[in-house]
Design a protein that fits this description.
The complex is a heterodimer of chains A (about 150) and B (about 725). With about 150 residues, chain A is an alpha+beta fold. Chain A has 2 domains: about 5-75, Beta-grasp domain (Ubiquitin-like (UB roll)); about 80-145, DNA polymerase, domain 1 (Orthogonal Bundle). In chain A, about 35% of the residues lie in helices and about 15% in strands. Chain A has helices at about 25-30, 80-90, 100-110, 120-125, 135-145; strands at about 5, 10-15, 50, 55-60, 70-75. Chain A has a 5-stranded mixed beta sheet, sandwiched between helices. The longest helix of chain A has 14 residues, at about 100-110. Chain A is elongated. The N and C termini of chain A lie far apart (about 45 Å). With about 725 residues, chain B is an alpha+beta fold. Chain B has 3 domains: about 1-30 and about 450-575, Aldehyde oxidase/xanthine dehydrogenase, molybdopterin binding domain (Aldehyde Oxidoreductase, domain 4, 2-Layer Sandwich); about 35-130 and about 175-225 and about 230-265, Alpha-Beta Complex (Aldehyde Oxidoreductase, domain 3), CATH 3.90.1170; about 270-445 and about 585-735, Aldehyde Oxidoreductase, domain 4, CATH 3.30.365. Chain B has a 7-stranded mixed beta sheet with strand order 3-7-1-14-11-12-13, with helices on both faces. Chain B has a 6-stranded mixed beta sheet with strand order 9-17-16-15-10-31. In chain B, a hairpin with a 6-residue loop joins strand 4 and strand 5. In chain B, helix 14 crosses helix 15. The chains are: A alpha+beta (about 150), B alpha+beta (about 725). At the A-B interface, helix 2, helix 3, helix 4 and helix 5 of A face helix 1 and helix 14 of B. The structure holds FE2/S2 (inorganic) cluster (2 copies). One FE2/S2 (inorganic) cluster sits at the interface of chains A and B. Chain B: This is Carbon-monoxide dehydrogenase large subunit. Chain B: It comes from Phytohabitans suffuscus. Chain B: It holds the Pfam family MoCoBD_1.
Chain lengths: ~150, ~725
């Protein structure tokens, strides 16, 4: 099948999409946007988080066909700004596999709540696994970005 | 003469930004699963559903008939060695007439779409004759037994405590799945882009299995999404290369999360039986221990894990009489091997649980009994090895004890056990505090020739001095790329440093494991920089490099750095070794087996809902001696990340294996700590220089993983009064 959607502000079309493919697969393998990651493909890790019509979703759980006609923003499409800066400054990036999903999730959190408390941050990022950092520096990054 | 220029920006002791960080936050860093090549095919692996079976036949017809399938290969298609292994060559590339664990690779497929490849694998008909699996290690074949004996084996004591402890099978659970791309080369060889911990040991094994000379197998490090030991053994390396050579097309393989659980080794499950004897005053008289490790179906690094468990098995204490044995067995359970802490984790859970029991029996506090028996510089290990660097065991314990206690929990349900599930409003919640300290060897042991190679080039780029550092050392997230550049800046006084992609065109760097890379590859980079400096000075008859000036013995400037480089770049390649280690005696375990010892202490504070058995870790304080914090921010990152993995083992992480079958190969069922599970982690970093190590540094990565588990368990015991001899703790252990 063919899937048309807007990705990072551009009209994109993917051909020969197999019905079982996820939005994550289409982004990564058909549209040349491998920034969204594939740590579990089961909705458990958040590494594949993208905006779909402005709402963060696990793109591994979205069937490619469901993206038809919709607006997708991936980590590659976010403007480089305070969130990314804060991750670098705070030491919140180690292997970086969780980072794209976290950057999108934090971007969304700060858009909704520009002064999140620690419990707010923890609740908002509960769906994003990181195996390297123990999360402390990720909290630092969010606090820094929120300043 | 080598003055080190401490003034250069972003040298050692500072925390410059990671050179790979910007790409990582933008989603532009190429991980091994992101690779793409024109014309590439996708590989898939058929794995055994049984832990033990004979293979009577394999029929590939239906798989080969699927449109889009380019190759289906079995062990018959392996042109070289049919087995590989890190220490013992026992693991088949593809199963040969039998399978010995569930998930063992049997056949591989290349197709034009990953789903086609997976379906084709499903169309392979394997005729298995199931056999009863051996799942109890003590009923299995012995792989290695390591005794460590010192003093009087029959020593007696006034106060005796015994215990049996169990550690479940933990998974490294890195987020970036096993993956890579193999590209067939014109010369009949293969170029392999892969996430690994040690490019050269992969190359050696891959070349042997492909029947190719090593120079025809070229590896480059692709972006590594975490490692923690799980990338020490081969996974898809030989498979993708075989498919690529067979189809003459590039082949990409990416494991899904379920396959990843089968695709790498795990932490050894262990049963540990300990007896500690002490005087009434609280001095340890003896430790007797038997440690049984389940090695699973193939050897991997089991022999070294057993040696660690045995040699480090009494902990960082002075014990005059030791009778210790660690044994590892083959079974039909999943193969076990390297995971952060490597044998020291299992032992620490047992000896620290024993120290708490002993404290209770003596009427002392847990910290008192530990400090009373703490080893110091000059202490002798049970192996007879003298600890000849700082061993601030007592100081680390005192540091975590002196930290202010965390405030009582608020009644915000997000901060209580059960969290957002809202299972309590504070009723039934009891606080507990626990302590633990551990010991870990740094780098490879027992006489292993453990070296790293660095090539350093100093040249003018656009008229400015610039340094290129090239090693084969695997950046796995820990920040080694940053550290290599920092060392070059400090040694050469040049700010502009680039670290080249790690590959096999330079000599081996050894493994990114055993907390060794900053020490060993850091040592190699430093040595190569010093060689560059010496060559440069000889070129102009200088005696020292001071900033951008070269001076003679009298301190007179003889040349500008830029001038001296005008004659061309200076490049040196150095192979650097840490001081030698020695094998241990097979009967007594005596010998100077280890290079360096590292220590971390933890204090854990928990709130436990004693009615529901739910635990909320409120705070973990860590104190660790790192000798020299080469990159303080990265050091703290390692300590916090390692501590969180220890929390996982204490409270939630276990690969559940029933009759040899893994029951929970997903992140839905194998739980790793989330940001809700991990508490604030205060960190105290001590810098007590080790005179034998570059800059006095000490390996950092593993110690924090070792003692956080027993500290948390001790805290839960303090809150509940339960014995809790097994990790991970389950709610029913608390409510029972
Ligand atoms: S890959 Fe989508 S949630 Fe893990
Ligand atoms: S930085 Fe590696 S998983 Fe988060």
């Amino acid at each position: 099948m063919r899937v048309n959607c807007t990705v990072n502000g551009e009209k994109r079309q993917a051909d020969d999409v197999w019905p079982g493919e996820s939005l994550l697969y289409v982004l990564r393998e058909r549209l040349g946007l491998p920034g969204s990651k594939n740590a579990c493909e089961q909705g458990e890790c958040g590494s594949c988080t993208v905006y779909l019509d402005g709402t963060p979703v696990c793109s591994c759980l979205v069937a490619a066909g469901q993206a038809e006609g919709r607006d997708v923003v991936t980590v590659e499409g976010l403007e480089f700004g305070r969130v990314q800066e804060a991750f670098l400054e705070a030491g919140a990036v180690q292997c970086g596999f969780c980072t794209p999903g976290l950057v999108v999730a934090v971007h969304d959190l700060l858009a909704r709540n520009d002064k999140p408390s620690d419990p707010d941050i923890r609740e908002a990022l509960a769906g994003n696994l990181c195996r390297c950092t123990g999360y402390e520096k990720i909290l630092d990054a969010v606090r820094l970005a929120a300043r | 003469m080598t003055t080190v220029d401490a003034s250069v920006r972003a040298g050692i002791g500072t925390s410059p930004r990671r050179p790979d960080g910007t790409l990582k936050v933008k989603g532009e860093f190429a991980f091994s699963s992101d690779l793409w090549h024109e014309d590439m095919l996708w590989g898939a692996t058929l794995r055994s559903p049984y832990p033990r079976a004979r293979i009577r036949g394999i029929d590939l017809t239906a798989a080969l008939a699927l449109p889009g399938v380019h190759a289906v290969l079995t062990q018959r298609d392996v042109p070289g060695a049919k087995r590989y292994g890190l220490e013992i060559v026992d693991q088949p590339v593809l199963a040969i007439d039998e399978v010995r664990y569930q998930g063992e690779p049997v056949a591989i497929v290349a197709a034009d779409h990953p789903e086609t490849a997976r379906r084709a694998a499903g169309h392979i008909a394997v005729d298995y004759l199931e056999l009863p699996p051996v799942t109890d290690p003590e009923a299995g074949e012995l792989l290695r037994r390591v005794p460590v004996r010192t003093g009087d084996p029959h020593a007696t004591a006034d106060v005796v405590v015994t215990g049996e402890y169990q550690v479940g099978m933990q998974d490294q659970a890195f987020l970036g799945p096993e993956s890579g791309l193999a590209v067939p080369a014109e010369d009949g060889g293969v170029d392999l882009y892969v996430a690994t911990q040690w490019l050269h040991v992969d190359r050696k094994q891959v070349a042997a299995c492909l029947g190719l000379p090593e120079e025809k197998v070229r590896l480059s490090l692709a972006g590594v999404g975490g490692a923690f030991g799980a990338r020490e053994d081969l996974s898809m390396q030989v498979h993708a290369s075989l498919l690529a050579l067979h189809t003459r097309r590039p082949v990409k393989m990416v494991y899904g999360r379920e396959e990843s659980f089968y695709g790498h080794v795990h932490r050894h499950p262990a049963t540990l039986r300990y007896e500690h004897g002490a005087t009434r005053a609280g001095d340890l008289v003896y430790v007797r221990a038997r440690i049984v490790l389940d090695g699973g179906a193939y050897a991997s690094s089991s022999t070294a894990v057993a040696a660690n468990a045995a040699t480090l098995g009494v902990g960082p204490y002075e014990v005059p009489n030791v009778d210790m044995e660690a044994s590892v067995y083959y079974t039909n359970n999943p193969p076990c091997g390297a995971m952060r802490g490597f044998g020291a984790v299992q032992a620490c859970f047992a000896y620290e649980s024993q120290m708490d029991k002993l404290a209770a029996a003596l009427g002392m506090t847990p910290v008192e009994v530990r400090i009373r028996n703490a080893m110091t510089a000059g202490s002798r290990m049970p192996t007879g090895q003298v600890v000849d660097g700082p061993a601030p065991v007592a100081a680390l314990l005192a540091r975590v004890r002196a930290r202010p206690a965390p405030p009582p929990s608020t009644l915000d349900s997000r901060e209580l056990p059960g969290g957002v599930s809202n299972t309590t409003h504070g009723e039934g919640v009891v606080r507990g505090v626990g302590y633990a300290i551990g010991i870990k060897n740094v780098a490879f042991s027992e006489g292993f020739d453990d070296y790293s190679t660095a090539r350093v080039r100093l040249e003018l780029i656009a008229g400015e001095p610039a340094v290129l550092v090239h090693t084969a050392a695997a950046e796995v997230g820990q920040g080694l790329v940053t550290v290599q550049a920092q060392i070059a800046r400090t040694e050469l006084g040049v700010e502009r440093v680039t670290v080249a992609t790690a590959d096999t065109s330079v000599g081996s760097a050894g493994s990114s494991s055993a907390s060794r890379q900053t020490y060993v590859t850091g040592g190699a980079v430093r040595a190569a920089c010093q060689a560059v400096r010496a060559t440069l000075l000889a070129r102009v008859g200088g005696a020292d490099l001071m900033g951008d000036k070269i001076v003679n013995a009298a301190g007179m400037v003889v040349a500008d750095l830029a001038e001296a480089l005008g004659d061309g770049p200076v490049e040196e390649t150095v192979r650097w070794r840490h001081r030698p280690t020695y094998p241990i005696d097979p009967e007594t375990g005596q010998g100077d087996a280890h290079v360096q010892y590292a220590f971390a202490a933890h204090r854990a504070t928990v709130d436990v809902d004693v009615e529901l058995g739910l635990v909320k870790v409120v705070e973990i304080a860590t104190a660790q001696d790192v000798g020299k914090a080469v990159n303080p921010l990265a050091v703290v990152g390692q300590i916090q990340g390692g501590t969180a993995q220890g929390l996982g083992l204490a409270l939630m992480e276990e690969v559940q294996v029933v009759d040899g079958v893994v029951r929970n190969p997903s992140f839905t069922d194998y739980l790793i700590p989330t940001i809700l599970d991990v508490p604030p982690m205060a960190v105290d970093v001590l810098e007590m220089a080790d005179p034998h190590a570059p800059y006095g540094l000490r390996g950092v990565g593993e110690p924090p993983t070792i003692s956080s588990t027993p500290a948390i368990v001790a805290a839960v015991r303090a809150a509940t009064g339960k014995a809790l001899g097994r990790v991970p703790i389950r709610p029913e252990h608390i409510t029972a």
